[in-house]
Write a structure and sequence with these properties.
Blueprint (H helix, E strand, L loop, with lengths): L2 E8 L2 E15 L4 E7 L3 E6 L2 E5 L3 H15 L5 E6 L4 H6 L7 E6 L2 H10 L12 E5 L2 H7 L4 E7 L13 H10 E10 L7 H14 L2 E8 L7 E8 L22 H6 L5 H4 L4
Parallel strand pairs: 6-7, 6-9, 7-8, 9-10
Antiparallel strand pairs: 1-2, 2-3, 3-4, 4-5, 10-12, 11-12
């Protein structure tokens, strides 16, 4: 008998993976957390039945949420990561020597705990002295911060449960206040096949708050539809005007200097969401 996990991405569509064994299953204070070992993608973190990351394809998301903004800013020193308890985003941020401190605010400490245990190559930088981990509410942390960060990365789950407030115009406005005068923020904004309205609202809200607002994409096979978007808001720096000579080798598997620009080239149906 085979055991399969299916994430229902809509009421009539889902993706499925063969599970070798369940490593953890716990109803935390905030969500249902499961860690399973899959045959195709290795260990897989699930929150409320949704795939958050896997050993096989995690590098795509983490490289793209981190390096596009960090190479856009000429000298990022103080970075905030909201969410991202698996640790992959801070791992990528720390590849930039200009970064003096990464503050991570993760609401669910169990995500960090089980990621350290079962996703060690993703969570490998938690002991780095440049990292401050805060178990708490990212929304509240943003509201209490002002003119503090060069870059803010919103590495959240989908807009349900504890992450629902992280997709609102009020949150983006709070981010703008928490950023320095030349700051940049990036938020993951789901996929255009099933969440077109979410993307449209996110980019429109960002345009009303930031002088520069751009949408970019990547391909992640275990995320809904495989096509994933990120929304960037920047006070000064345009990611399309970065000199390619400034982009160094990050020793990654997905992000490249050429892809930095190419990721902003959108298919026509996605362009229409940004108007």
């Amino acid at each position: 008998m085979s055991l399969w996990f299916t994430e229902k991405q809509t009421s009539s569509f889902g993706i499925t993976a063969k599970v070798n064994r369940t490593l953890e299953s716990e109803n935390t204070d905030f969500q249902q957390l499961d860690m399973v070992e899959t045959q195709e993608f290795g260990n897989m973190l699930l929150l409320d039945g949704m795939v958050m990351t896997t050993e096989k394809d995690e590098f795509v998301y983490h490289e793209m949420i981190a390096h596009v903004p960090l190479f856009t800013h000429p000298s990022p020193k103080n970075v905030l990561v909201v969410g991202g308890g698996d640790g992959g985003t801070i791992r990528e941020v720390l590849k930039h020597s200009s970064v003096e401190k990464v503050t991570q605010v993760e609401i669910d400490g169990k995500v960090v705990e089980y990621s350290k245990k079962h996703l060690p190559h993703i969570s490998c930088e938690y002991g780095n002295p440049r990292v401050e981990l805060i178990i708490g509410d990212g929304f509240e942390h943003i509201i209490k911060s002002e003119n503090r960060y060069d870059i803010i990365l919103v590495d959240s789950t989908e807009p349900v449960g504890p992450a629902a407030g992280l997709f609102t115009k009020g949150f983006y406005a709070g981010i703008a206040k928490a950023l320095k005068k030349d700051g940049i923020f990036v938020a993951q904004t789901d996929n255009p096949w099933f969440k077109a309205d979410l993307i449209k609202n996110a980019i429109q809200d960002t345009k009303e708050i930031f002088p520069i607002a751009r949408l970019y994409t990547c391909n992640i096979p275990t995320y809904p539809s495989g096509m994933w978007t990120f929304t960037m808001g920047s006070k000064v720096y345009d990611p399309l005007k970065v000199s390619i000579d400034k982009i160094f080798d990050i020793n990654g598997k997905y992000y490249t200097p050429e892809l930095h620009y190419a990721s902003f080239v959108l298919p026509k149906f996605l362009q229409s969401l940004c108007k």
